[in-house]
Amino acid sequence: MWLALKAFLASLILTPIFRDVFRTYGMVDKPDLHRKVHIYPIPRVGGIPIALAYTIALFPFFSGGSLPWDDTTSLAWKLGPAAALIFATGLIDDLLGLKPWQKLMGQVAASGLAYWAGIRLTTLGGYAAETWLSLPVTIFWLLLCTNAFNLVDGLDGLASGMALVASL
Prior knowledge:
Blueprint: H1 2-24, E1 28-29, E2 42-43, H2 47-58, H3 71-78, H4 80-95, H5 100-117, E3 123-124, E4 127-128, H6 131-152, H7 158-167
Antiparallel strand pairs: 1-2, 3-4
């Protein structure tokens, strides 16, 4: 709970700061009345304060100098490279714009890193999956979830609200 509270508080503090900075420097996504249905320009790189909040939560600040090290914290650190790669892919896309195949390659590589770190789908419909099937099914599922959130990210607050409900 302490890690979740630290992440929540850091996100609560950092998000408005970054929002205002990004608006000031014109790093916004402008509505186009077709695919982008938001009314006002919104900051494009909102993942930065969220990524920082997760990172802050994993460090021992304000917890007596030591991490409550358990399997969950260990998995979070193992997933660091995958999270960093998916974050970098999204950030580069927001700042420079990537072609769809470039984004897909970054997502596939990050999914592969997540699989290597221990995130695996080992059952399908309640039945044990063959070992050889676990890798492609896991990567497909992670790609599906990543792009589902990316598709709803154009509506104000929808992606963050869905992420909150999913994490709860």
